[in-house]
Amino acid sequence: MGVALFLNIVTALLEIELVRMFLSVVAVFTFVAIGGAMFLVLMERKVSAWIQARIGPRHVGPGGVLQTIADTVKILQKEHIVSAQADRFMFSLAPIMVAVAALLSYVVLPWGPGVIVRDLNVGLLYFAAVSSVGVIGILIGGWASNNKYSLYGGLRSAAQMISYEIPLGLALLTVAVLTGTLSTAKIVEAQPYPLLYYPFILVNAFIFITAATAETNRVPFDLPEAESELVAGYFSEYTPMRFAVFQLGEYGALFANSALFVTMFLGGWRGPFDLPLIGAVGSGIIWFLLKSYAIVFFLMWVRWTYPRLRIDQLLNVSWKVLVPLGLVNLLVVSFFVVMGW
Amino acid sequence: MAGEAIAFYILTGMIVTAAAIVVGSKNIVHAGVSLVPVLLGVAGLYVLLRAEFLTVVQILIYVGAITVLLLFVILLTEGATGLRTRQRNEQVPLAAAVAALFLVTLLVALTRTPWALTNQPSAAYNIGAVGTSLFTTYVLVFEVAGLLILASLVGAIVIARKES
Amino acid sequence: MIGLQHYLILSALLFAIGLFGVLTRRNAVAVLMGVELMLNAAAINFVAFTHFVSPGLVRGHVAALVIITLAACEAVVGLALVINAYRHLDTIQVDEMNLMKG
């Protein structure tokens, strides 16, 4: 009886493609941990060094490429400390929420022709939805630390992310109106867009990249973690491993947003030519990664070039510039699409 | 089918437990955070009911916006956990009786009613169908909802504004 | 086999829990949370009825969407009121807000 029930459960689980799901999760997680967090931290340090005319990490491995691995090993050896009077459960939950929210958004990224974890009909909305869950992790992480600077960081982050979700959503909607679909794979197929729409797409891309930068809490919108005024905001009380999980979420979201930008505006996995030897799928993946890392580089360049905004400036940019711009853009594009131009 | 039943019971357990924490917890921040599993559980039910668009909207608006706003206001006003203040009023026995009575009435009513069930297999309701009916059959509902959003936007700004 | 009644019972439970929260909480934000639970229970009913009684039609989905819109509006206005009350009265416990004039 028990065995039969167990077997039933196993077959039922296999029917919902559990194996495929599990392998996808492993693949995505490995990519986020290595290609996302570890590589991007190294890249950030190298890019910032290059912009500030320094050399950056150079001792571990050739040219310092193994520096983050050494850092990870060091982080793993550190003790977990929960500060006194902190809410233990919430304190541990917060980094996991941030990281899981970032990981979930990888489900709808089209890596190459047919290479996608799940092509959802509502892919774009799904992306916006799961990335908006991460803010709860930041908010409760800031609160649970029992530190006023952390709380300030969490509150700022909540205000900022709620404000910038609206221009982000408007940018996604404009793309959906243009392509007539919310599925990320079909959006790639709908490109290149007609030449007539280029001015609007440029405006849209600007809105999206600004809002995405704010959503990932990066300079010039890094008020939630402003080191110099809030001692790193919501994660100042976190000991290394949990801090690393926060970083995993943050860099994971950074790459995911860049990849979505590539999907919506830069033709996704399409390249100017197919690379030899690795086939259409392989070259699609290579082009997709190349473009995404180019956008990541652009965001790092911005980060190390511009100073931080004040909180009122930051909210004004969202509500008085990006939201009206996004609405007008959506209206004009909808008009063009309805007229069939 | 077995998979669906397992998923349903897991979601039910998650929703009911978390909802009990939402209404019962002495720590007001815990209550607010427990709203997240309730709302995600309801989103999971929408997946089981093949309503993909609603699932995403539920997560986007409820979890991503409303819960964050609630938590934001709790942190702004209570500052901390609210543990120092009494969180329940003196109506607990009465309220429990009312809620239980209500539940029993509802359960009796809904188990005795013969529902006009159909056995036709239902395809997933795609977002196109929802959008089309929202802009044709239910366009008035849509317009009223839009007006409501505008009114509450203006109302919230006017109410929360600092008088100078 | 999960049928309509399973969903209805779950939604009745959720509604009763929400009702209990609305009736017993002193904190205005917690009262709003109870209201959110009740609205969610209603939305589950709409979607479940659509799925089991009239599959193919999306009426219930439209109703659930309207409920979510309503919930958002209610939360925004409610929280604005809470902030305003806190500014004037220094409390957000609903049974202590007993002034006709702020």
Counting DSSP E segments of at least 2 residues, the number of strands of chain A comes to 0
Largest interface: B-C, 86 and 72 residues
- Helix-residue proportion of chain B: over 70%
- Order of H and E elements of chain B: HHHHHH
CATH topology of the largest domain in chain B: Four Helix Bundle (Hemerythrin (Met), subunit A)
Structural class by SSE content of chain B: mainly alpha
Number of strands of chain B: 0
Kindly give the count of domains of chain B: 2
Helix content of chain A: 55-70%
Q: Output the number of helix runs of chain B.
A: 6
- Following the backbone from N to C, one meets helices and strands of chain A in this order, namely HHHHHHHHHHHH
Q: Could you give a short account of the major beta sheet of chain A?
A: none
How large, in whole angstroms, is the Cα Rg of chain A?
Answer: 21 Å
Quick check: average pLDDT of chain A?
80
N-C termini distance of chain B: 62 Å
How big a fraction of the residues of chain A is strand?
A: under 5%
Major pleated sheet of chain B: none
- Uncertain segments of chain B of ≥5 residues (pLDDT<50)? none
Give your account of this protein's structure:
The complex is a heterotrimer of chains A (341), B (164) and C (102). By secondary structure, chain A is mostly helical. Chain A has 12 helices and no strands. Chain A has helices at 2-15, 18-51, 67-76, 88-104, 123-144, 148-179, 184-189, 198-215, 227-230, 240-265, 279-303, 311-339. In chain A, α8 runs antiparallel to α10. Chain A starts with a helix and ends with a helix. Chain B folds into 2 domains: 1-82, Four Helix Bundle (Hemerythrin (Met), subunit A) (Up-down Bundle), CATH 1.20.120.1200; 127-164. The radius of gyration of chain B is 20 Å and the shape is globular. The relative contact order of chain B is 0.07. Chain C has one domain (4-91): Orthogonal Bundle (Helix Hairpins), CATH 1.10.287.3510. Chain C has helices spanning 4-24, 28-52, 59-89. The mean pLDDT of chain C is 85. Chain A binds chain B through residues 8-9, 12-13, 15-16, 87, 90, 120-122, 125-126, 128-130, 132-133, 135-136, 139-140, 143, 151, 154-155, 158-159, 161-162, 165, 182, and chain B through 1-3, 6, 29-30, 33, 36, 52-53, 55-57, 59-60, 63-65, 67-69, 71-72, 75-76, 81, 126-127.
